[in-house]
Specification:
This protein is an alpha/beta fold and 169 residues long. 28% of the residues lie in helices and 13% in strands. The chain is built from 5 helices and 5 strands. A 5-stranded mixed β-sheet has the order 2-1-3-5-4, sandwiched between helices.
Length: 169
């Protein structure tokens, strides 16, 4: 299966960080391509995007100051298939990406992603007290997976807190 490209550049407002690509994302070459994934709807409902984007438009998020990457590049059917070694390597690579591109905010799409990255067990939703990369604020949001039992409106209200820091010009 093919990995999918990151959408990163220097000085972004937010980089959204997922676990890893789904099989469908691998097949299409685009982030959050599974129709049961609510990522695009959540961004819109939270007021982060002016429209509901489609996964094929993932690269155009750069124009809004948003980037996309994952802690692990290998596509899987489920995040439970990711190995400890892949997480270990992914932590190092992700930290390098954040240090290189220096976004204002690293938004982890799922507590599990941040737990794997930071090594912390107890993680609240929203802003984290300590950043893992100096100058990059860490934010933890619910996963957008259709398997998450939270309502879209509840998830979007957490993502909406990203607007509180006034990064938008």
């Amino acid at each position: 299966m093919e990995t999918i490209p990151d959408h990163l550049e220097e000085g972004l407002d937010i980089v959204f960080i997922g676990f890893n690509p789904s099989i469908m994302s691998s097949e299409t070459g685009h982030h959050y391509a599974n129709p049961t994934n609510r990522f695009w709807k959540i961004l819109y409902q939270a007021g982060l995007t002016p429209q509901i984007y489609h996964s094929e438009e993932d690269g155009s998020l750069l124009e809004l100051g948003f980037g996309l990457t994952n802690i692990v590049a290998r596509p899987t059917k489920d995040a439970s298939e990711i190995t400890k070694e892949e997480y270990r390597e992914g932590r190092v690579l992700l930290k390098e990406k954040l240090e290189t591109y220096r976004p204002r905010i690293a938004c982890f799409v799922g507590k599990g992603v941040y737990q794997q990255y930071s090594g912390k067990k107890k993680v609240p939703w929203g802003w984290q007290e300590e950043s893992t990369v100096s100058g990059v604020r860490d934010f933890v949001a619910p996963s957008s997976s259709g398997l998450v039992r939270m309502k879209v409106e509840e998830i979007a209200s957490i993502y909406q807190k990203l607007l509180d820091v006034g990064w938008r010009g």
